Amino acid sequence: MIGGLPSGFSDYYPELARYGGLTAAFLATAAEHGIDLGDELRAPEPDWTPTAAQFDSPRGTMWVNLWLEERGFSIKLGNSRGGHPWAEGATPDIAEAAGVLAAWKHGATLTELSERFPFMTYTRLSQGYEDGNPEAVMWDLQIGDPKFEEYRDLLIALRAEPQLARMFPFFSMWTLRLAKDAYREEPGELLIRQQDDGSYLLWSSSETEEDQREFRRLDDLVAAAAALRNTL
To answer: Which of 71, 137, 158, 208 has its CA 20 to 30 A from that of 165?
Structure first.
């Protein structure tokens, strides 16, 4: 058995048994193929998570996990400046997977990465983070999402206010949240809930629902939200 998984699992991944874990297998494969993952890297001994591996890059942690039912190395490129991953993909070729990690670690753009490794995919929001405008991209995505059609007038009105347009909009439990910073894990936020009767409730992440302010007019809500932003 490898890492508590059935013995048949090793048929898909003979490298794990040969090298003692996924990290060691990646480093050995990289050395064999002349792929630069960094001379400073060493496999943990003992490797307590032999079926998973993670590597650092200037843009965030890179994770590799294994498929269970067939051979496949699942790659996720984490974003150190936001919770949204840069790119994800999978390949049955460990040398290809190592090539992805090396290319990303050494500065490949999302476009360059996907052109060289077509199985690696990324989203419009990832591109927005790379271009430095995730807020504008997220506003476009939310306004254009049919799921939030009933909130479209609200979103358009909020975005028209310059201070609010610099915030990062997203929905959680059908409450619109405007984050002051798209790059921090716990930024200050404005919360807006659209009521069935057409009214709006507004409060901030530093307040409780008891502090909610109610508005009947959309322009009054926008003005109050812009003022409340300055308190975050």
So the answer is: 208
* Enclosing H/E stretch for 193: strand 189-194
Assigned token pair, 186:
């716990």
Q: Residues 12, 15, 18, CA angle at the centre, nearest 5°?
A: 125
| DSSP secondary structure code for residue 5 in this structure | B
Cα dist. 38→25, 31, 108 in Å? 14, 10, 16
At 215, the amino acid letter reads F
Six token digits for residue 38 = 């960094």
Q: How far apart are CA 148 and CA 138, in angstroms?
A: 13
What tens digit of pLDDT does each residue of 41-84 get?
A: 666 666 667 788 999 999 999 999 999 888 999 999 998 877 78
pTM over 0.85: yes
Q: Which positions ≥6 away from 193 have C-beta within 8 Å?
A: 174, 175, 176, 200, 201, 212
Please, where are the H alpha helices in the chain? 9-12, 14-19, 22-33, 94-105, 110-116, 124-131, 134-144, 152-159, 162-165, 218-229
- pLDDT, one tens digit per residue, over 83-121 is 789 999 999 999 999 999 999 999 999 999 999 999 999
How many angstroms separate the CA atoms of 95 and 144, rounded? Answer: 39
- In what helix (H) or strand (E) does residue 73 lie, and over which residues does it extend? strand 73-77
